[in-house]
Design a protein that fits this description.
5 helices
């Protein structure tokens, strides 16, 4: 893993989520494909695609309503 110089050891996932070490990592197309292939349900794949193409947060996408699309 690419650990920033100011971090002495690799942070645990929960530490990154809470303390925001550095910036969020952007998935490469290869990483995207590997994750998408592991998703068992079509709705999960669709949600993942929306997140990938929009760059939006999960919470914001989950709160979308049809009226936001068609208005």
């Amino acid at each position: 893993a690419n650990i920033p110089r100011y971090v002495e050891k690799e942070p645990k996932l929960q530490d990154v989520k809470i303390n925001r070490y550095g910036q969020a990592k952007v998935l490469s197309p290869k990483e995207y494909s590997k994750i998408r292939k592991q998703l068992p349900h079509q709705w999960q794949k669709l949600l993942f695609e929306i997140l990938w193409y929009t760059g939006e947060r999960v919470g914001a996408v989950c709160q979308l309503e049809w009226r936001y699309v068609y208005e």
